[in-house]
Amino acid sequence: MLEQIIDHNRLLKLDKLIKESRNIAITCHMAPDGDAVGGANALCLLLRNMGKVANVITPDQAPYDLEFIPGYNQMTAYSRHPMKAKRLINEADLIVCLDYNGLNRVAQMSTLLRDATCKKVMIDHHLHPEDFCDLTISYPVMTSTCELLYRILHHLNYTELIDKTIAECIYTGMMTDTGNFSYNSNHAELYLIVAELVRKGVDKDRIYKLAINTSSENRMRLTGYALAEKMIVYPEHKASLIVLTGDDLTRFNYQSGDTEMLANKPLAIPEVVWSTFFRQEKGYVKVSMRSEGNFAVNILCTRYFNGGGHANAAGGEFRGTMDDAIKTYRQLLDDLSKADNNPNKINLQSDEN
Ligand code: 5GP
Ligand code: MN
């Protein structure tokens, strides 16, 4: 039995919306991760088991290293197939916004979603959900959207419909959003859910191997290079910075997903409490921050890098050159020194957002 954390009325409303709908479109955020792709496909496959028409639409192509997730090859990426994505959204009588809290997280797909006239439901675990859905089921206390999804299915008595493939999808999201249960993972009920998923047939060792311990040769060399040559440690700030330029990425034939988890690695150094990673993208610098304990990097990503996220895992997009991103980072270090290294105490006067 799982504790009833989710508001009962919202669960009933969701159940009603699902029962009344024939065609359901499931969307997730751009650059989708294991939780987004796992959660979206879990829900999609489950709705199909209920006899619904269901499709997953992503803003951009999901990274190739998530290809092992059941349903991956049936997803439609708006960036590659805009006409098909539009048709699937327009034909839907319910849109699920899964694992994201605002329309800015779906990039070029945001207008399409905003203009869609059918009902929309958010199922998410990020802080500060925007109010753009008819029903919002948002629980930042959940370690992953997949955990939230499992709990929803449990309370609505749909767990019978969870087969092995759906269980694999859910397990993948729970595992990847907790770094294979290495952070945010002390809640005992997590393991009740894992036990149920293993009972459904999940081979958790296989998923660990595919999701976390598989790498192309290029990716492994890029990781080694980034750590050996590009990581700067600032012990006085308990900080580290890794910068990968366009040339670095080209040299190792970078593929989307190749730097997933790179931002976490410096946290293994006892002197590093928060880690920052900048990656050159077309027209902007992708920022990732990770931290331990109560050092809240989402505050820093929001204030300095046009982003947000969770206290210990956040990101953003810096619209400027890499040199300017590095200057902004140095400014951030200065500001933190003046604020006793407490993100909450940074002088708001330097806040431009
Ligand atoms: P990552 O560093 O893996 O891209 O993102 C880590 C977390 O930071 C994500 O789960 C998401 O919550 C948040 N995040 C990443 N990029 C952005 C962004 O551009 N805007 C906002 N608001 N959050 C982001
Ligand atoms: Mn997530």
How would you characterize this protein structure?
With 353 residues, this protein is an alpha/beta fold. The chain has two domains: 204 residues, inorganic pyrophosphatase (n-terminal core) (Alpha-Beta Complex), CATH 3.90.1640.10; 136 residues, Diaminopimelate Epimerase, Chain A, domain 1 (Roll). The protein is 38% helix and 18% strand. The strands form two sheets. Strands 3-2-1-4-5-6 form a six-stranded parallel sheet, with helices on both faces. Strands 7-8-9-10-12-11 form a six-stranded mixed sheet. Helix 4 links the parallel strand 4 and strand 5. Helix 2 runs antiparallel to helix 6, helix 5 packs across helix 6 and helix 6 packs across helix 8. The longest helix is centred in the C-terminal third of the chain and has 17 residues. The radius of gyration is 20 Å and the shape is globular. The site of guanosine-5'-monophosphate has 12 residues, from strand 11 and strand 12.
